[in-house]
Structure formats: C-alpha cells, structure tokens
Amino acid sequence: MDQHISRQFNADLEELKTQLLEMGGLVEQQTINAVKAITTPDSDLAERVLVTEEEVDARELKLDENCTLVLARRQPAASDLRMVLSVARITRDLERMGDEAHKVAKMAIHLNEHGEAPRGYVELRHIGTIVHQMVISALDAFARFDVDLAISVAQEDKKVDQEYKSAMRELATYMMEDPRSISRVLNIIWALRALERIGDHAANIAEHVIYLVKGLDVRHQSLQEMERQVKEQ
Length: 233
Prior knowledge:
Layout: H1 2-39, H2 43-74, H3 78-114, H4 121-144, H5 147-177, H6 182-214, H7 223-232
Helix pairs in contact: 1-2, 1-3, 1-4, 2-3, 3-6, 4-5, 4-6, 5-6, 5-7
C-alpha cells in the first residue's frame, strides 16, 4: 500500500510538471507571436495572441486547483513540497507573462489601425529575441533542475534592463525632436515595457528553480548575492 501511494504521489508531481511545461509552451509561443505581430505588422496574428491568453488563464486556474489538491491529499514535505510550491509560483509568473504578451498584441493592433511608428521596431525585435530565449531557458532550467542555466537567465535579465533603458532614451529623444510622432512611438514604448516585464518574470522563474533545487530563497537579492549563495550551497 505504501509503495502504491508513493507511486501515485510521484505521478501527481510529474503531472504538475507536465502541465506547467505545457502552459509554458503556450506562453513562449505567445511571446513569439506578439513580437512578430507588432514588427510585421500582423493584426490576425495579434488576435491569435489575444485568444491564446484565454487558454493560458484557464490553465492557470487548473494548475492552481491541482496544486491545492496535492497539498491537501499528500501533505508533501522537503523537496516534494518545494516542487508543489515552485509550480504554483511559476504558474503565476507564466500567467503574467501571458498578460504582457497580450499588451504587445494590443499595441500591434492599434498601430496597424492608426499607422506604424517611425522608430522602435529594431529595438522591439532585438529585445524580443533576448526575452524569448530567456523564456525558453527558464522553462528548460525547470524541466532539467538546472541551477546554472537558471543563473544565466538572471544574468540575461540584467542585459534586457540595459537594452530597455537605452531604447527608452533614444525614443524619448526622437519624440522631442518630432512631437507629431509621440502617440505612435508611445505604443512602441509600452510594447517594449511589456517585453521587459516578460524578462522579469522569466528571471523570477529562474529564482524559483534555484529554490526548488537548492532550497534557497534568492528573491529580492542582487545577482552577485544569488551567485554567491548558490556557490556556497
């Protein structure tokens, strides 16, 4: 009986992991499509991002329910408890990433209807490429329990922050030089902000992976402090 319960518990944990990675795959595709929709531009693709958001939300609710059931039925401890808690936390970050992709898609539709912005598309493609890879790496780090890969995601987040600040300076300067462009360039700025937030959530997932594998809560720590703690563990 004990062996049967143990096998079922392991199956429950594997199912949580599988469902999370499936949700992650949807959000990853949302990110790709949102960037392509605004840089192409492609309103039909943007509409697909909006529709996918409904499925992402539904998956979040289902995963929340399943995590609660596992906690209630199995009362996990140690690493098993960390797995359930990490899945719950990562689920929230994935849902918020979907929300940000939704914002980019809305900006894509607005620009397609009212005219393209004169600047900012190069920055969107560049930051979008980095953020997309961060999403892939964060999910891969979770799937493989790979702390080194998780740290590399946190490192990339710093790069995204720098690229975002640089883009903001350039676009602000352009709007001052050409006030007629302000409304359209602001749509690009909001889209860039959404992409930067997706990078932040990918970095959050990386922190959850470190907690899952090492039992270290590295939230709200500097990158250097995070690396030091992991190395000393």
